[in-house]
What does this fold into?
Amino acid sequence: MEKQSILFRDLGRMDYQAAWDLQESLLKENVRRKSGTGLPATTHYLFFVEHPPVYTLGKSGNKDNVLLSEEELAASHIEFFHTNRGGDITFHGPGQIVGYPILDLEQFYTDIGRYLRNIEEVMILTLAEYGIRGDRSPGETGVWIDPEIPGRERKICAIGVRCSRWVTMHGFAFNVNTDLSYFNHIIPCGIVNKQVTSLEKELGRSLDMEEVKEKVKKNFEKIFNAELVSEILL
It folds into this structure.
């Protein structure tokens, strides 16, 4: 398979709605290009972002998995969005690497399951660089630690995507230095009796976010047979 070029940009701290709008606009532009003749080819993107505290619910998720009322959310300065991605409830906030790949999978492979497994593999390789064995939990998308040990299962990366005409949006949320207390107010991913963890908690020290981002980028290039091209202007 020919190596693909992916335009990369770290958006820094950005509100969830603004990032969602950006993704939607680029997905729609790529779908428009695929639908017409004589139009430019589709463009691949990968964005990294950190959001202010926000809970996001997948399109088929259960809002009962949010354990705070609207008034309590407002008092805690936590936003809430019902999104059009797959999956259930999750949290985004500072100290977390949120990745939004906007890829035309027809240039890679037309297999959503393979795409999800490849995102998981990017995270598993990144964790391995810190001496942590990341793994998959059968039937539960995302990356886990000790998924096979009852009572010890803990999720470190959540994944939820949307795909239209084989163009993706949304993506992954990797807990690095994340304040895990925010997960106490939801049933993460709608999965009861399982924990959430972070790289900081597992290693017992705070991580350099830029260092971790570089490792994720390198592993993304490896798994997707791609080159990330930085300094894009939007």
